[in-house]
Design goal:
By secondary structure, the chain is mostly helical. The protein has helices at residues 7-11, 19-32, 70-95, 105-113, 115-127, 137-170, 179-197, and strands at 5-6, 41-47, 53-59, 64-66, 205-207. The protein has 7 helices and 5 strands; from the N terminus they run βααβββαααααβ. The protein has a 3-stranded antiparallel β-sheet with strand order 1-2-3. Strands 4-5 form a two-stranded antiparallel sheet. A hairpin with a 5-residue loop joins β2 (41-47) and β3.
Length: 208
């Protein structure tokens, strides 16, 4: 197997005909490692068996580990994923019946936006089902910083919808049979977010 060559080593050996393809691949690889994490990666190029240029990014940053160990973090990730699945059931269940709450802007808007943090958390946890340590810096930051923020948003947004629903009831707003389903579903989604937020301490990371 041919050993990959670093950029400066291989560039001088690329013919002029192949250089546009190499430049394109370099730009695509650069988009994968940008922003605050750009120093954690380097671009590595190699020539494949057909004479083409293969461009990849290689992680060269520090390794990261879960602070309380992989077993504790793994249990917490699986529990949080189950809570997210329950949250999706509650979210969809609230949309099925015809309710006056979902016709009220200050109720329906925060509830609809709760799908955003719920989706981001679900994506993170699904992608980490087979996670093995050490982690890259970018993924460690997602657990350390983004996960708590997303869990908090997942709690606050349906909570705001519940407050709005309570205000609507208190001011004599119209009632439909679907409101008897919407309110419990919104409360269940809020509870799922709060329980996920409670798992943040078990998903803290440390630099190796």
């Amino acid at each position: 197997m041919q050993k990959p060559l670093c950029y400066n080593q291989i560039w001088t050996g690329i013919t002029p005909e192949l250089r546009p393809a190499a430049e394109s691949g370099t730009r695509k690889a650069g988009h994968m490692a940008k922003g605050k994490y750009i120093k954690d990666y380097r671009i590595v190029e190699s020539i494949n068996s057909r004479g083409g240029v293969r461009v990849e990014t290689e992680y060269i940053g520090a390794p990261y580990y879960f602070l309380l160990g992989s077993e504790t973090a793994g249990k917490s990730r699986r529990l949080s994923l189950l809570l997210c699945l329950a949250g999706w059931c509650a979210f969809i269940g609230a949309l099925i019946p015809n309710s006056a709450g979902m016709r009220t802007l200050y109720v329906s808007l925060p509830f609809a936006f709760s799908a955003l943090p719920l989706g981001l958390m679900s994506s993170l946890l699904l992608g980490a089902l087979r996670l093995k340590e050490p982690m890259e810096h970018r993924l460690a930051d997602r657990f350390e910083n983004r996960f708590p923020a997303q869990a908090l948003a997942m709690t606050a947004l349906p909570g705001a919808a519940l407050i709005g629903e309570g205000i609507r009831w208190a001011t004599g707003g119209s009632m439909l049979p679907g409101d008897a389903v919407f309110a419990p579903c919104a409360a269940a989604l809020c509870l799922c977010g709060a329980l996920c937020f409670g798992q943040r301490g078990r998903l803290r990371t440390r630099k190796g």
